[in-house]
Amino acid sequence: MGEHKKIAILGGGNLGEALAKGFASFIDPSDIIVTRRHLSRLEHLKEKGFVITSDNLEAVSKSRYIFLCVQPKQVAGLLNEIGSVLDVDNHVLVSTITGVSLDAINEYAHGDFAIIRAMPNTAVAISESMTCICGNKLAESHIPKVEEMFRALGETLIIEERLMKAATVLAASGIAFFLRYIRAATQGGIELGFEAEEAQKIAMQTARGAASLLVEGSAHPEREIDKVTTPQGCTIAGLNEMEHQGLSSALIKGIVASFEKINRITE
Fold first, then answer.
1. By percentage, how much of the chain surpasses pLDDT 70?
2. HSE on the CB side for 136, CA within 13 Å?
3. Per-residue model confidence as pLDDT tens digits over 66-87
4. Which residue, 134, 129, 185, is CA-closest to 163?
5. For the chain, what are the domain ranges?
6. Helix 102-109 vs helix 75-82: crossing angle, to nearest 10
7. What topology is assigned to 168-265 in CATH?
8. Which of 15, 114, 179, 230 is the most exposed place for a label (fewest CB within 10 A)?
9. What is the pTM of this model?
10. Cα separation of 206 and 32, whole Å?
């Protein structure tokens, strides 16, 4: 990443901890400060060389990039708490908070800051996240560095802020949707005679392989489907039955329902 200053991760929960571990692949852990009210839950990070503290002011005063990893209801209080040490010339705010706009963060921070929103998913913990990123005008020069940080944790995509809620549904909620398919496939495998662990292993690796075909080959899903289906074969029979039962329609309706919900709860 080249030259950098310390990173502060305010909110060392599951996501904050995953970010810290991912960033440590290219930044010395001693340059990453993680905060949490109860430090006992971060002792394992301290043992690995990370700096841990319950003092958000101290963390911010020593850092360049300030990652906000708290719950939406906590962001106003957090920014008010650290306001006395925030510096518009020296700090870049990176929010992973669902549904809180760039303008809202700027208002809570009481200044014209470089602000970036990043929406990773839980696969960030194994460096396989899909992270969507957007920023305000003051953050334009900082987005490449922040995107580089998240590239160490998976794939990234720069988007317009108007698409951030949709990205939350498709990438963050999407993890649950794909997991539910794997669970259903596992149950189907058990009904066909496999033990539960065997069925799940087959379903997991098959899902990984399907995604990899698209990632590595840049092909359209239907093109890969055509390679598997043969006239009057078992694959097309299964696909047609799934479509008769509304598979694609149910998935699309589920995604739209999630989008409608996130719009209601973040208005």
1. 98
2. 17
3. 999 999 999 999 999 999 999 9
4. 134
5. 7-159, 168-265
6. 40
7. ProC C-terminal domain-like fold (1.10.3730)
8. 230
9. 0.89
10. 37
